[in-house]
Amino acid sequence: MKWLTKAEVKREAKKGEIPAIKCSLKHWDQISSATRQELIRKLRSGKRLITGDSCALCQRHRGNGFCPFLNRICTLGWGCTKTFDDAGSALYDFQRNNTESNYVRAIKKSVIVRDKLRKVLQRYESKEKNRRRHVQG
Predict the structure, then answer these.
(1) To which H or E segment does residue 118 belong?
(2) Alpha helices in 46-81 (DSSP H)
(3) How many helices (DSSP H) and strands (DSSP E) are in the chain?
(4) Could you report the per-residue pLDDT of 32-44, keeping only the tens digit for each?
(5) Strands (E), 8-129
(6) Residue ranges per domain, the chain?
(7) What are phi and psi of 41, to 5 degrees?
């Protein structure tokens, strides 16, 4: 798998809210769809999977902006929700002990984050569509 790079994340974060959400969604989609071996290789590469640098929403809002994932002002920058923390803990557990059960748990928790981001994206795309309709009408 070709994982998103920090440069790609940073670039998408600068483009705007919807591109940042899409990038964050892609990141979590990559994690949640990774095979066990892909996840092991990524974790063994020494590069961390989940950091503020790997999240385009964190890049946009870390510590001082309204984050669509949080649905409030970001004051944390990392470990922003229980959903996110649960996925991070599961991935950390898998990194320490890459058993099949830890892999399954990590994927399940990552799917929850991914699915929440899908809902956030749908909400923002709907808002944008309504805004454009209002401007045109």
Answers:
(1) helix 100-136
(2) 56-61
(3) 6, 2
(4) 999 999 999 998 8
(5) 66-67, 72-73
(6) 6-136
(7) -60, -45
3-state helix, strand, coil in the chain (%, to 5): 70, 5, 25
In b/e form, how buried is each residue of 89-125, taking b as 16+ CB within 10 angstroms?
Answer: ebbbbbbeebeeebbebbbebbbbbbebbeebbeebe
How far CA 126 is from CA of 21, 57, 131, 137, in Å, comes to: 13, 18, 9, 16
Residues 6+ apart with CB under 8 A from 115: none
CA contacts within 13 A on the Cβ side of 11: 5
The C-alpha atoms of residue 51 and residue 86 are separated, in whole angstroms, by 14
80-106 pLDDT, tens per residue? 678 888 998 999 999 999 999 999 999
pLDDT at 80: 67
